[in-house]
Structures are given as structure tokens and as C-alpha cells.
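Q: I have 198 residues here and want to know how they pack in 3D. Can you give me a structure?
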Amino acid sequence: MNRLAEFSKTTLIGGFLILLPIYLSLLLLLKTLKGVLALISPVTAQIPAAVAFKEVLAVLIVLAACFVAGLLVRTGPIARGVTAVERNMLEKIPGYSLMRGLASRIGGRDDAGTFEPALVEIEDALAPAMIIERLPDGRFTVLVPSVPTPAAGALYVLTADRVHPVDVPLHKLLKVYSKWGEGMADLVAAAKIPPRVG
């Protein structure tokens, strides 16, 4: 009888541990899809009712508009205008520069030289971080994000010997935070940390 009860309990718990993440993932996916459909609803409303798959067409229209906007921003006068608006208005909004830098790095634009993945020495520990900027005196401003949401964290100014750039894409560093540290071994292996003497 005890064996049957134990078998039933472990089987029930095992099934729960399998079904719960699937259920939560589906809920998150449906909520995201609902949010996307709400965002494109003004475009969907302009498409004639006779057109099949209005939502799909609306998404394609929005993507095409984003592509055209991206092309326009690459032209000289518009690029200078966007830069001026960013410098004079948008960069004064708290968090704008951080989000723009993160989006640029995740999108593969590494030209800014900021938000470079690194391991930093804080007390006797190594912490995954992002290099925000290099100061004129050789020190670094770094952001050590919090787990599991890398959009928040603590800022530090550290000397160069305590900051070790890691040759991995930024999304890999962010994944370590969102997965509660899983994948940290890859960051440590890719870090440029000189061996300790003594």
C-alpha cells in the first residue's frame, strides 16, 4: 500500500513539474500575442473586412514600415536629425540610453563600444556585468544587473585590473541572468582574466 501511495505521489509530482512550465509558457505566449495584436489594431482596422488574414497582413505592413524607417534613418540628413533629437531630448529620459544601447548590442551593432560583456571583481567574487563606458582616467563604469531581470542593477566605477571583458555576444550574458546563472561556465572560460600570482 505504501509503495502504491509513493508511486502515485511521485508520478503526480512528475506530471505537475512537466505540465506547469508548458502551461505557463503557453499563457505567456498568448499574452504576448494578445499584446502584439492590440498594438497593430489601428493598422488592422484600416484593412478591408473582405481581406483574409487581416492580422498577418497588418504585421507585414508594420514590419515593412519599420524596414523603410530603418532605411531612411541611414540617409545623411535624417540620420543627423535623429541624432540631434536623441541628444537634445530622448537621452534626457531616464533609461533611454541604456535601452537603446542594449537594443543596439543585441541587434549586432557593436560600433558604440558600450555594453560590452565582462566579468568584474567585486570584493572576492566575480560578477557578470556590462561595461557602460571607459573613463578618461582608465577606469570603467559597469552595470552589474540583478537576477533574473538584467534591466535593473547596480552601477560601479572600477579600476581596469578589476574589469575583464568577455568575448561573447551580449545576449549570451543576458541569458545567464534570465536563467539564474546557468551558462556562467562559458563566460568564465571566455574571460580575459590574468592568472593570480601568489
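Q: Anything worth noting?
A: The first strand starts at residue 116 and ends at 122. The mean pLDDT is 76.
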